[in-house]
Design a protein that fits this description.
The complex is a heterodimer of chains A (263) and B (396). Chain A is of the alpha+beta class and 263 residues long. Chain A contains five helices and 14 strands. Chain A is elongated and about 65 Å long. Chain A starts with 9 loop residues before the first helix and ends with a strand. Chain B folds into two domains: 215 residues, no CATH class; 104 residues. In chain B, strand 6 and strand 7 form a beta hairpin. Classes of the chains: A alpha+beta (263), B mainly alpha (396). At the A-B interface, strand 12 and strand 13 of A face helix 1, strand 2 and helix 7 of B.
């Protein structure tokens, strides 16, 4: 459900700190708000919230803009083995779901970091979701999914236009990324392109130009009696002492990147 | 059940230290739970407890939609209680099972170290490096065991209180809107009292009961000091000092006799007074803690008991008490005199505990033997108190 090599990664922590759950989606073209089922074991995208509302109900268009707080922030340094696995997953985050060849052995002996570039967001205000829930039609969703609180709504997505891979050259400043090396070791097929951005940085982008989401903000849905309630913040719990801490954004699980399945 | 899943998830998110989950082991000490409904929940897995590596000085209960419940006790508060207990039992005059346990530290060292520990509180929680900020000397095995028992008692009290959150829980309805139902102030206090009562009742010996009570009072006093340092407590919880007072009042109610109360609380009073002294210093107040009548009588009773058991010379009573007798406020001294007159009567009544009868008769004898050596005005107050209780209208 969560991918390996990322637990408590610096970039994952940064995203969590501003309320984002990093995810790997199997598709592009997602637009908030969208319905998910998360049962603590698997995360399944059920589709746009609009599909669970009356046809005549209008969902306001999401706000969009740049996410400068995420740009320029790198992942933790990764060794070759972890980086190779991470790269495959990270490419999915920019819409490259399969690559014929991803061989990073030309970076052997060097640590590697990654960062997302051209980061943007699309968001719908959680308060607006509250107003839609009165007409929610859960249809074929299993009653136990509802009763156990597994229903979630993603109300904001973060998208990346490209992915950069930087090779640390601390011990070997003579190492340089070259176009020939890259052409020999990496082939993204028709889905993407790879370029040398600088002597130590390689950039990956989707060929189609269709950007993919790599993180979302999500809240949980709960039915109390006949009414639905949306909780975009962590539950506070009942304390031995009263808790004055500011409510934190809700996350499915801190420190991990979640793999999303499509229904 | 969802509670177990939630606990495991949070423990993945905030990995525990090298000690592992200390709460699971403590929770096992409460098993089987006294309340049958709670025990049934535990047996079916709908009630779990565990340690969570958070810095806030708190414990929390989370209620899940499948009617399962997870109690979290936060790591830094566990560390705090454990270090505080080691400091307290590294000091002198904590009484063990048979003999006074004397640590290497003086009273001022003890209070100074506790003050340093309290300074590890920050508005964002307790500092990450609690242990490294305090220099802890090695404890004797007996003192170490007592320290562990006392801090375990603090933590068991927290868990027991949280069980009240499960017991009183009612699921939210649509009328609650987005708000989750919380305990009333009365239910919060009742959870404290019930938690303490079950801990005292589960004690295997009077020595255990002494440490249980000390741990419960210490748990609340520590939180009261955090409040003085700036920790904010929201309106739906009674403030820790009020909760401590309720606990102290109920300790007396849980004892069969007042004599039992004074026999079971000397460690609690000593610990409470040292923690308060350290807390005052931590907020920049160099005054000593209040010399209340209860605290003074507890110290008097303890030192007299040592003399009665030939552990201390008679002069030690005067050495321990005379400073308080000179410096305490007069109303507190008058109240102390009345307690002493009540507890050390001229003629002791027989009870179902002949050993205790004999001990308290000896203590009364020691007390009265000092009649002419108390400083004034204390000597007169003792005389007046005896007169008012045993010769009303007559001469003292």
């Amino acid at each position: 459900m969560s991918i390996t090599g990322c637990r408590n990664d610096a970039l994952v922590k940064l995203l969590n700190g501003i309320g984002y759950q990093p995810v790997i989606l199997p598709r592009t073209g997602v637009v908030p708000p969208e319905l998910y089922v998360y049962d603590n074991d698997s995360l399944v995208r059920r589709g746009s919230l609009a599909e669970y509302l009356p046809k005549d109900m209008v969902i306001p268009p999401p706000q969009q803009g740049r996410l400068s707080s995420i740009e320029h922030h790198e992942t933790s340094k990764k060794s070759l083995g972890v980086a190779a696995s991470f790269l495959g997953d990270a490419l999915k985050c920019i819409g490259i779901t399969s690559a014929p060849k991803l061989d990073l052995s030309f970076t052997i002996g060097h640590d590697i970091t990654f960062k997302f570039d051209d980061v943007t967001y699309q968001a719908i205000d959680p308060a607006k979701i509250d107003h839609m829930l009165g007409k929610l039609i859960t249809g074929a969703i299993a009653p136990e999914v509802i009763a156990n609180g597994y229903l979630h709504i993603a109300y904001e997505y973060a998208f990346a236009g490209s992915l950069s891979m930087k090779v640390a050259r601390d011990a070997d400043s003579s190492w340089k990324a070259t176009a020939i090396q890259i052409a020999t070791y990496i082939d993204l097929g028709i889905q993407g392109k790879v370029t040398v951005a600088s002597e130590d940085t390689i950039a990956f982008s989707a060929a189609s130009g269709e950007i993919a989401a790599f993180a979302f903000k999500v809240g949980r849905l709960e039915r109390r009696g006949s009414k639905w309630f949306f909780f975009p913040e962590e539950e506070a719990g009942e304390g031995f002492l009263a808790d004055e801490a500011a409510p934190q954004p809700y996350l499915l699980e801190r420190g991990v990147v979640m793999q999303v399945k499509e229904q | 059940m969802l509670a177990e899943v939630k606990l495991k998830k949070v423990q993945r998110e905030y990995p525990l230290g090298s000690s592992g989950d200390r709460v699971t082991a403590l929770f096992a000490q409460l098993v089987p739970l006294e309340n049958p409904k709670l025990e049934a929940r535990r047996l079916t897995g709908s009630l779990v407890a565990g340690e969570v590596n958070w810095n806030a000085p708190n414990a929390k209960t989370f209620h899940c939609l499948d009617d399962s419940h997870a109690i979290f006790v936060f790591s830094k508060l566990i560390d705090f209680y454990q270090i505080a207990a080691k400091i307290l039992f590294g000091g002198a005059n904590i009484f063990g099972d048979h003999l006074p346990v004397r640590g290497p530290d003086s009273t001022s060292d003890t209070v100074g170290k506790l003050e340093a520990l309290f300074r590890c509180w920050t508005p964002k929680g307790l500092a990450d490096d609690l242990p490294s900020q305090i220099s802890l000397g090695p404890l004797s095995p007996e003192a170490g065991a007592l320290a562990t028992f006392e801090s375990d008692s603090s933590l068991l009290f927290l868990i027991s209180h949280e069980l009240g959150h499960v017991f009183y829980y009612r699921p939210p309805t649509e009328d609650d809107g987005k708000n989750d139902p919380v305990l009333t102030k009365e239910q919060e206090l009742q959870s404290d009292v019930t938690g303490m009562q079950s801990l005292i009742q589960s004690a295997q010996s009077p020595a255990d009961a002494r440490m249980r009570i000390a741990g419960v009072w210490a748990a609340m006093r520590v939180l009261a000091v955090f409040g003085a340092l700036g920790h904010e407590f929201a309106g739906d919880h009674p403030p820790p000092l009020a909760r401590l007072q309720v606990l102290q009042d109920h300790t007396l109610m849980f004892c069969k006799t007042e004599r039992d109360f004074w026999s079971l609380t000397p460690v609690a009073y000593t610990v409470d007074q040292k923690l308060e002294a350290a807390g005052l210093r931590a907020v920049g107040n160099m005054n000593p803690p209040a010399r209340t009548a209860d605290r003074m009588f507890s110290a008097l009773s303890a030192v007299i008991e040592n003399v009665a058991k030939d552990r201390e010379p008679l002069s030690q009573v005067l050495a321990v008490m005379n400073y308080d007798f000179v410096h305490a406020p007069r109303p507190n001294l008058e109240q102390l005199a009345l307690i002493a007159a009540r507890m050390f009567p001229p003629t002791l009544t027989q009870t179902e505990a002949p050993d205790q009868d004999a001990l308290w008769a000896k203590k009364a004898e020691v007390f009265r033997s000092l009649k002419d050596q108390w400083p004034q005005p204390m000597a007169k107050m003792f005389g007046d108190a005896y007169a008012s209780l045993y010769h009303p209208g007559g001469e003292s």
